[in-house]
Amino acid sequence: MDMDIDGTDGKPYVLIEPRKLPITKGSRNRVNYTNGESSNSLLGTFLEPKTGIVYDKRMRYHGNLHEDEHHPEDPKRITVIQEKIKDTGCLNRMVPIKAREVLPEEACLVHTEDHWDFVTKTAHMSDNELIKNADEYNSIYLNNETAFCARLSCGGVIELCKAVVEGTVTNGFANVRPPGHHAELNEPMGFCIFNNVAVAAQCLRKHYNVEKVFILDWDIHHGNGTQKAFYNDPNVVYCSIHRYENGHFYPGDKALANYTAIGGGEAKGKTINIPWPRAGMKDSDYIFAFNKVVMPIAYEFSPDIVIVSAGFDAAEGDPIGENHVSPSGFGHMTHMLKTLADGKLILALEGGYNLDSISKSALACVKVLLGEPPSKLGPIKPNQDCMETIHQVIRTQSKYWNCLAPVYYATEDRLPGQLLVDMAEMLKMYRTRNLYSKYKLIPVPLSDGKLGQRFTNLACCSGDLFRKEVVFFFVHDMADFRADTRATSNSINVSNSYMIDTVYLYIETILGNEHGIIDVDVPPVVNQPKNENQDLKDLLIFLWDNLIEATNPKKVILIGAGRGCRSLAGLINERDYSIMEKVVCTIMIPGPNEVPSVSKRTDLSTWYHNNANVLLPANHPFWDKKMKREHGSCSKIEDLNNMPVQDMLVHLHNDMFSHINQILVNGGPANSSNEEGNN
Ligand SMILES: [Zn+2]
């Protein structure tokens, strides 16, 4: 099949014979940037949007010298996309825009001259030199065609952007490679040579009446190069949705790719990172991010043009991204972005390594660019990790964008003379007083200095513990506040805000049955200290040794709810034999937190599997993973989806206590398989 794109005679730019370009900066060749004013009048004659496409089969020449090793950045990527667009009849409806090589003065609006010179030199290197040089960079391969292809790829994106700004087309898709968003100012990186999108954005700003550019990067990887290019530029928004995993996913810069990277100086708030904590994100999560963050900010920013770093490695089936965005999901994101900037929207290919997925995804985007509606999505149900991430992004960015109000409060926002009282401290005081006056529970004196400092008044127990045959060891998160915040600040409307505490329900049930209780309140943490779980585990061990071992009850029930579950599992590991002897039942309700596991040792993990009921919402990410004996006996409960742990406790209360009572009456653990059926 001949994939050549026809020439574009009569288009308002001068074509330059690619091979005749000088190889250093200072060329006398010029690209003719026409004055956008006059050609913009063409827009008035459009009956429907015109969609441009850039493709040049010569971009396939950039290849891996190790021919026996398959590299994911396969030259076929652009061919399969182009074929898909052609075979479905879409190509006939598009305006071909001819790619040309980027000029040094254009590339150097973003890159250094050293970088340009290095790339240029690769055209004449021996194979050994190419391999040696490529190895010095991060995830790069080179051949003698790399420089030409990279210039063509970058120039292609520029030409498409120009065609959009000049009104030749309304929008367009740049089917180009090598990709660009990892390319740093001074070096190639991550399969990228020149930063196509960043260079194109700078060209538009330099030569046209384009002031504000909105760059949306939905490639699965963070676009480190693009972010750096505009980090201090208040007129370019760089917004990236990417897999992050606390900095463990490529490109792996923990600080740069997190939501805390917001831009510098005058440009604070102009870098927006939406970092997924794990793989497995779906259409719902991306649409949620668009609805909550991307589109509100884009409307407030009001860009003159929108450029998408359109990698398709977040697509369903991508071997690297492992996310599940459908072609329709990409179509919807494209559709939303079309509403901005008079519809001036350019999609430039970045990554994407499953040939089938990328061609279907690109086609869905192209159809939307051509004016077709995106196909319908199912109901949007973002997962817990997505909602947590978006919450953090909004907290961080609300200082810079009115649309994300209310503005979140940080202690450094305090005015001189204002007194700060931590609500957790107020809650502790209230709780200690209440637990004693209502239930005669007394705070456990903590002899150890470090434990005392952190956990005073957080561990309480029945005063007559030594008389009890059955003792509940209950470790749970602190009470929640449900607060009515004001519209533009996060100050609380006190008369309409409440503390919600389910723990009292449990304490009353336990004491009502004449059992003893050791109750541990796990305090909230804003920035989770590294040793939080270690400290809490030390407290639990202290309580076990000094209260359980000392009073020697016949039966112990362990209940963990929320973040404390992990430390409770730690206690089980540390006091294994004593626990296997005394504990007749363990209930774990981790909520959205990770599912705790005990040691893999056969006797302990078998005991735990038979003894522990782990109650999880059906949409907990754990269900995608492989369950093991040391995770206990896990039950999937639909009704718990997205519920705060405090509410889960209410929901599970009756079933849980009838299960526990059955065990206490029968004298041993119930068959765990029955439990699963009940839920
Ligand atoms: Zn990528």
TrEMBL record:
Subcellular location: Nucleus
Family per record: Belongs to the histone deacetylase family. HD type 2 subfamily.
Gene Ontology terms for molecular function: histone deacetylase activity, hydrolytic mechanism
A family per Pfam: Arb2-like
Species this chain originates from: Glomus cerebriforme
GO cellular component: histone deacetylase complex
Domain Arb2-like: 424-660
Keywords for this protein: Chromatin regulator, Hydrolase, Nucleus, Repressor, Transcription, Transcription regulation
One GO term (biological process): epigenetic regulation of gene expression
UniProt name for this protein: histone deacetylase
Superkingdom of this protein's organism: Eukaryota
Residue stretches making up the Histone deacetylase domain: 71-369
InterPro entries: Arb2-like_domain, HDACs, His_deacetylse_dom, His_deacetylse_dom_sf, Ureohydrolase_dom_sf
PANTHER family from the UniProt entry: HISTONE DEACETYLASE, HISTONE DEACETYLASE HDAC1-RELATED
Catalytic activity: N(6)-acetyl-L-lysyl-[histone] + H2O = L-lysyl-[histone] + acetate
EC number of this enzyme: 3.5.1.98
Enzyme superclass (EC): hydrolase
Record's keyword annotation contains Hydrolase: yes
